Amino acid sequence: MDLGHGLGHLSYSTLVHAGDTWAEMKESLHTFVPAVKARVSPGQRFGVSLRISADSARTLTDSPAERAELRTFLDDNDMYVYTVNAFPYGPFKGDVVMERVYEPDWSTDDRVAYTNSVADILAEIAPAGVSPSIQTAPLAFAPNVTDDDYIARFTTNLFQVVAHLVDLEARTGRRVKLALEPEPACFLETTAETVAFFAERVYSPQGIAELARLAGLPLSEAEGAMRRYLGIVFDIGHQSVGFEDIPGSLRSLVDAGIPIFKLQEAAALWVRDLTPGVVPQLRVFTDTIYLSQTTMRQDGAVTKFLTLGDALDAYEANPVPTEIRTHFHVPVFLEELGPFVTTRFAVQQALQLHRETPLSDHLEIETYTWDVLPAHLKTGDITDYVTRELEFVRGELLDPRP
Fold first, then answer.
1. What domains lie within the chain, and their CATH numbers?
2. Which NCBIfam families match (predicted)?
């Protein structure tokens, strides 16, 4: 939904629903999204953040009838697509995902072709007056980036998609934006690393010249095109896991001229003071199909782990005063989870900054872990929970508490 006041479009990520194939995504779209709309936006068009996997992209690309049916469904239900999650290429629900979620990464032709096809679909299904965004992976899983050639390869592939977006707007009049999402354990992890990558690889003379060549643009237009089509998703939860100062990180992106094409409201699990007695309760959160990247702070020193289980093992081997944050997306309306807390405060900080000076025209709540939350933390059904999240974020922006 368009929040007005320049605050942008807000919805929730349909990554929370089954959607590995188009048949699954379509069923989820028909089942859940109208029910959420009826609660939070009954008299106003409702924005949809649509997950499109590679399998779904092939189905929609090959079937004009499916695309037409999707547009009709959206129109008939007073809904519109303004952003697509094209981060997970393959299966994301019901099977162990872990680091496979980053494959194929941006060094591959498959990632380029997939992203281009999603852009073409968006140009057709998004409404006039909306410049839709594509959320994509943070280039590569960090351990896989072995040398400069790897970096050069995925940077060139990124520029190939930007060139496609330039051509797409020239042909259709529709601007589609590509947004990289930094994430723990990836090549783009911290805000500082993201700023450095854009300065050294994207906005550098060499980067601008490469885009000019790929897109057939004069140098005088290539830098503007780079900023027009390529930016980032700022996931508040991801950056909170790394103990970043969220307002400071957002300001550094603005100062660097890097477009925040999507501001993602997500909260992480946070344990201020880890004790041996708490560990068993925390291990409940290790039974998950996703990576649970965890940052541990002990005596001012920070250590990073791929999973929460690994971090807890390390703590038990050396049980000194410890604070941890872990990449487990928890409902943004919750400040406490039993004996633990969440980084909801960081979401509130970011929303306050956005309220004062809008940072992005696309906002999205991304809590996709409802199905793997411990049972005692679930209250109501998925529609109840999504509705509460949307009402919380909308309230923070339009009716903030003193």
1. 9-267+330-398 (3.20.20.150)
2. TIM_EboE (NF035939)
